[in-house]
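name: query_chain
kind: protein
chains: 1
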Amino acid sequence: MDSTTLAEVSGNVATIGYGLGTLGPGIGLGILIGKALEGIARQPEVAGQLRTTMFIGVAFVEVLALLGLVTGFLF
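structure:
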């Protein structure tokens, strides 16, 4: 194998790796938002606090997903 073929294989593997890496944040967002909505349904009076906490959690999960994307471009 020459160096061009190796570069193509590693690029394809990196793409598949990032594709699999998006499963974690996707599952995390689903659980996070679902539990926040469940909490709001159970106690509507704390909806504001739960919504604020949910958005902070969503921001952290999205940062992890973007960090994975940037890491894929760097390496």
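note: The chain has a mean pLDDT of 82.
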